[in-house]
Amino acid sequence: MSRDFADHLVAQWAATRPDLDPEPMAIVVRLMRLGALLEERLTAVLREHDLTVWEFDVLATLRRNGPEGLPPKQLLRELLLSSGAMTHRIDRLEEAGLVKRSADPADRRGTIVRLTSAGVRRVDPAVRDRFEDARQVVALLERGEARALRAALRKLALALQPSPW
To answer: In a designed cystine with 93, which of 14, 30, 99, 100 is the match (CB 3.0 to 4.6 A)?
Structure first.
């Protein structure tokens, strides 16, 4: 059977600190390393569309929320960003002609961020390829394994997220 980095880590800790149970660390380390590997894949997919991960995150969030757009506060909540980072990202995407700000009809002091038609044309092929890459990754698992993993990861996410979505 092949060994991964977590197996290596567990063996080292078992030898060095037999008083500790390294198995939980194996799960956490695998999740963290898989996150990094998946981000590398995402970066490669997005490079084909001349997008960075942060650009894709903003554009895809706007795309999936529909043509009505979102207030910047909602965007930053969905993307887990600070307001300064969100403003900077919106500014850069607006300069590139991919998003536009307009007055919020429900709040005169607020704004709504929407994709431009250029933004839709830019993000749609990237979304398609992102979905295909995710399908390829999940296809490495058997159907039951994928279902069980989805359920287990959801359970962890619900337990660890700071507040209900």
So the answer is: 99
- Non-local (6+) Cβ contacts of 29 within 8 A are 5, 6, 9
DSSP conformation class of 46 = H
Closest CA to 122 of 69, 48, 67: 48
- The predicted model scores a pTM of 0.87
Q: For residues 161 and 66, give the distance between their C-alpha atoms in angstroms, rounded to a whole number.
A: 25
CA distance 22 to 40: 27
Give first-to-last CA distance, the chain, whole Å: 40
Q: Is the dihedral of CA 158, 159, 160, 163 positive or negative?
A: positive
- CB count, 10 Å around CB of 42? 18
At 21 the three-state DSSP class reads coil
pLDDT in tens, 85-131: 999 999 999 999 999 999 988 888 889 999 999 999 999 999 999 99
Structure tokens at 18: 């037999």
Question: What's residue 164's pLDDT?
Answer: 58
